[in-house]
Specification:
The protein has one domain: TIM Barrel, CATH 3.20.20.70. The chain is built from 6 helices and 9 strands, in the order ββαβαβαβββαβαβα. Its cofactor is S-adenosyl-L-methionine; Mg(2+); [4Fe-4S] cluster.
Length: 194
């Protein structure tokens, strides 16, 4: 397994924000987004045996694992997820939707599409997270919201680890006008925790 890092922290985004979580960050991504705030997945990884990954996960008391990247669905993670679940872990995955079948057995899926012209509206996910900034097309956001029943989180686009106040204000105003959306604030950045 190509793993960029395994670390223990709080989930900072979406429905599970504030929960203690063990993060497993997989290497590589099928996209190269200019606003990506996590460069490690493109620059570093360790080849790890599955047993080594489980050993590191077991060092922490939480039973909540977040699989992230990069783009974790570059790998077929179903066997890995099943083994985590067999050991009592609740498994959440964040994906850009590259290959949802590779995470079909996850307990929770956050879909964060980057190309809004090609959104998968099937039911493979539990929540959608959209990265927005002050010039985001509000009509497109509203169009997306009309096609979904699942929760939609809007997350202000950051500048690496810096919160961009204008983008936060844009999200606040958007949600006040359209309560269909929920704010995701990246608590880990606000609290300056890893």
């Amino acid at each position: 397994m190509k793993v960029s890092e395994i670390f223990y922290s709080l989930q900072g985004e979406g429905r599970h924000a504030g929960r203690a979580a063990i993060f497993v960050r997989f290497y590589d991504c099928n996209l190269a987004c200019s606003f990506c705030d996590e460069p490690l997945h493109k620059s570093y990884y360790q080849e790890m045996e599955e047993a080594e990954v489980f050993q590191q996960i077991a060092q922490h008391p939480a039973k909540f694992v977040v699989i992230t990247g990069g783009e974790p669905t570059l790998n077929d993670l179903r066997p890995f997820i099943a083994k985590l679940q067999d050991q009592g872990y609740y498994v959440a995955v964040e994906t850009n939707g590259y290959q949802p079948t590779h995470i079909a057995n996850a307990d929770w899926v956050t879909y964060s599409p980057k190309n809004w012209k090609h959104i998968d509206f099937s039911s493979f996910f539990n929540e959608m997270k959209l990265i927005v900034h002050q010039k985001t097309d509000v009509e497109k956001l509203e169009e997306i919201s009309r096609q979904l029943e699942t929760p939609i989180f809007v997350q202000p686009q950051a500048d690496q680890d810096r919160v961009v106040e204008e983008n936060v204000q844009f999200c606040v105003n958007l949600i006040k006008k359209n309560p269909r959306f929920t704010l995701s604030l990246q608590l880990h950045k606000l609290l300056h925790i890893p």
